[in-house]
Amino acid sequence: MSDNQETSDAEDTTPSGSATLPLRPPCERLSGHKSSVCSRSYFVVVMVFFHVYIINVIALLFYVHYNSGQEDANQSRDAPSGDHQSRESRRPPSKPEFLRDVSLTRIEGIRVGHVQKVSLVPNKVHEMRTLSLKPLLFEIPGFLSEDECRVVMQLAQLKGLMESQLMVQEGQEELAKELNLSPEEIFNLLDINQDAQLQLHEILTHSRVRDGIWLTPENLREIYTGLKADKDGDGLLSLEEFKLLSNDAFQRFLLQRGVKRSQLVRNSRHTWLYQGKGAHQVLQDIKERVTRLTRLPPALVDLSEPLQVVRYEEGGHYHAHHDSGPVYPETACTHTRLAANTSTPFETSCRYITVLFYLNSVEGGGETAFPVADNRTYDEVCLIQNDVDLLDTRRNCDKSNLKVKPTKGTAVFWYNYLSDGRGWVGEQDEYALHGGCVVTRGTKWVANKWINIDPDYQRQARYQQLVSQHPEDEDDEGLTLNPDIQSSDIHQDL
């Protein structure tokens, strides 16, 4: 080879940008073919493979080390030390926790006016129409046959109906003594908006809940005048004016003047019909149909309240109310209070679903009103404004957002609680506020089937376990408290 060729080869091996460095001497050529040991590309390939090999080895070591560490940790958890075992053995046993193996089916309303086909009895398809989404409310025409409606009314008459609400009860003075609150404390509790004055609607709300008397703003002004409570005549009570009244002043005044049936929160008669083993076949069929309609586990329906049958004479009504109240941590459900094994200051009936049956077609009035159905918002203060009381079903039923006309055999049902998002009972649906409009002509017969479910899953599970442990000879009727004896406690209408 020539010198020029050798110089050219040497320059090719010089990195770019290193022109100022001295050139390395060219490799010596061997006689025969070119050696690959000094080849730059061969060297690069070898180094790449070497680094990949080293990285793989390191990764493998890390993998083995990590797995062995996890196994040791698992073994240490599975085999605790003797001290830990002794501490665990000394710890008192806690209440058993139940896994959530039940999810409550909740029917979708889709949209108002949507119709679904449902199969509730053999060889017949019923139509279920969505009436509102807040609350989730449905109507099923022909749910009961004419014969079934007749049998239910006759069974109720045979058992005997009682007054749904008593007139003003005496003994309020004893209750007032037990209250143990000062006038200032009572005033502050009644003053909902904390403006240092008791407005009409604040007094009305308290009186309706405590006394069951449906006073109107006009009635309240009349009482103020009779008791000479509102000295300045502005319709408001200051703390000084309130102090002049005794705790039972309203009750004393009402007892002296007398209370009309139309002034009660509800004006009707009712009874309870057992639906368990040994009950009339029609009653058992209705319970089974309700189970198919609501798509709930049969055990939940079986352990709920009996069937309530109600009769409203002409002039009868039921002012707007909720079938069940909100459940707070300090609140117990009536049906699970025994299983809860704790003392709580408040109870509510925890009626997850209401199924209402119309047993006859009413000649005039008697609609079921939902004052705030599908409202954009719910505000309790706005229910009584400018002397317009949306809760008053004698005067303002026509102002309700939705009214259902009573038609024989038709059933309506709605959810009194929202879902918790995990397949169980959530918060109370305030839009489920409803009432019975005054019957203007004829008689109105209805029946109510409530499905009682505790929003606390553990309490409901313990209750069902407790019931299942009873001997079979103590059937469901013995496990549920006697509705006739304790109807005021168990089957309360809030």
How would you characterize this protein structure?
The protein has 494 residues and is an alpha+beta fold. It contains 15 helices and 22 strands. The chain has helices spanning 3-12, 40-78, 82-90, 146-159, 172-179, 183-190, 200-211, 217-227, 239-243, 249-257, 281-294, 298-302, 337-340, 457-468, 476-479, and strands at residues 115-121, 124-133, 136-140, 162-163, 266-267, 269-273, 307-312, 317-321, 331-333, 346-348, 351-358, 364-365, 368-370, 384-385, 388-389, 402-404, 411-415, 417-419, 425-428, 434-436, 439-441, 444-452. A hairpin with a 5-residue loop joins β18 (417-419) and β19 (425-428).
Overall mean pLDDT stands at 78
Fraction in beta strands: 15-25%
Q: List the strand order in the largest sheet.
A: 1-2-3-17-11-22-7-6-4
Number of strands: 22
Task: Give the class from helix and strand content and strand pairing.
Answer: alpha+beta
Rg for CA atoms: 38 Å
Principal-axes geometry comes out as extended
Task: Give the topology, please.
Layout: H1 3-12, H2 40-78, H3 82-90, E1 115-121, E2 124-133, E3 136-140, H4 146-159, E4 162-163, H5 172-179, H6 183-190, H7 200-211, H8 217-227, H9 239-243, H10 249-257, E5 266-267, E6 269-273, H11 281-294, H12 298-302, E7 307-312, E8 317-321, E9 331-333, H13 337-340, E10 346-348, E11 351-358, E12 364-365, E13 368-370, E14 384-385, E15 388-389, E16 402-404, E17 411-415, E18 417-419, E19 425-428, E20 434-436, E21 439-441, E22 444-452, H14 457-468, H15 476-479
Parallel strand pairs: 9-10
Antiparallel strand pairs: 1-2, 2-3, 3-17, 4-6, 5-8, 6-7, 7-22, 8-20, 11-17, 11-22, 12-21, 13-16, 13-20, 14-15, 18-19
